[in-house]
From TrEMBL:
Annotated Polymerase/histidinol phosphatase N-terminal domain residues: 84-161
SMART domains, per database record: POLIIIAc
High-level lineage: Bacteria, Bacillati, Actinomycetota, Actinomycetes, Micromonosporales
Alphabetical list of PROSITE patterns matching this protein: TAT (PS51318)
Domain of life per record: Bacteria
Name of this protein: Polymerase/histidinol phosphatase N-terminal domain-containing protein
Signal peptide: none
InterPro entries documented for this protein: DUF3604, Pol/His_phosphatase_N, Pol/histidinol_Pase-like, TAT_signal
Amino acid sequence: MSGFDSHHCHHHHDDARDEVPYGQVSFVPAMARRALLAGAGGALMLAALPGTARAAQTKVAGVATAAGAARASKITQGTTLVHADMHNHTVMSDGDGSAANAFASMREAGLDVAALTDHATLFAIEGLSSGEWRTTGDLANAANDPGQFTAIRGFEWSHPLQGHINVWNTSDFADLARASSPGSLYSWLTGRPGGLASFNHPGREAGRFSNFSFNASARNQLVGLEMFNRTDDYIFEGWSSGMTSPLVACLNAGWRPGLTGVTDEHGTTWGFHEGKGRSGLWVTENTRDAVFAAMLARRSFATRVSGLRVDATANGVRMGGVLNTAVADVRFLVDVDRGPEWDGKPLRIQVLRPGTSVPTVVNVVDTVNGAVADFTVRLNAADGNWVVLRVSDPAVANGTPGPAGHPCNDFGVAYTSPWWLQP
């Protein structure tokens, strides 16, 4: 398979069906199936309900689940953490499950914000039809519960070579007949000012969004770059076959996305898989408008751990923001907590800066779960205009490592959204 690693075959859609052999569970009721998954995947985590600081020890499908961290940041005020999964599939494209069950499953699993994003392909082959698009909207409206649970309709623009882009908050959708290239999709998107979009599993498809070719007019609406998709960390995606890290390629091209994690679920147990990607969003309230505002502000972090809280500031500027400086000693405060289950757990924070093929790590800070890390790093815009923090578990290896000895060859737990240096 020239052009990318053979080990990346496992990224293609069908792998979702391999997690639990289909023939073994086709007759198992949903709750029993979740119990099987919980037994296989370790205890499921349920986060606190919106508006409460913590949740009691709970049982789901007979499995005790921890509450996760409290929803209030230790370093900023005025927003609350919500747990989100903005990338999910159903039988309306290439998923296994009925769309009618998806939102309820995600709410039951402890998510606060959830989106259905079935594929938009060419002429609805293995993808959304106009009727299914309306159905997705009806299901999202029925499941939406302002203040408690936000249900969102979206779609995944799907080009077999250039890659896939999620779009949310538009009244219509674009398949390949309406937008045949990334550039034409950006033009379509800029005609819908409320629409928001994300680069999905970046680098899985060889064209990589015309190699992240930059479109200034669409920059603000491209609010996401998936750093965790399913169980994979994308920091070194394609590196071993000579490609640039998608994080480096995207940010160096001029895009300014927040960083996200998603399950990209194709099965029938939406929200219940521990270890798959998810996002944290810092919202003023749990409503669609406030969720979209948080996405626009890049008040997001990527993780693949449920119940995790991450917030970070740089010289008082929240992640996703701009540092109006060319050269400065930048003081970072980083709040990382997963609640009692991780009490005392050693964690590590890596300060990522632009490199040529992979990020350059300019500082590594040891911390522990529940602490606020406080450290200062000198940053110079001449070395590149962005900085990202990666939180890792130093006791576990990265399943897809980068160059020998790279500090990010340990297990990625979370990524903050970037800050941009803008003198």
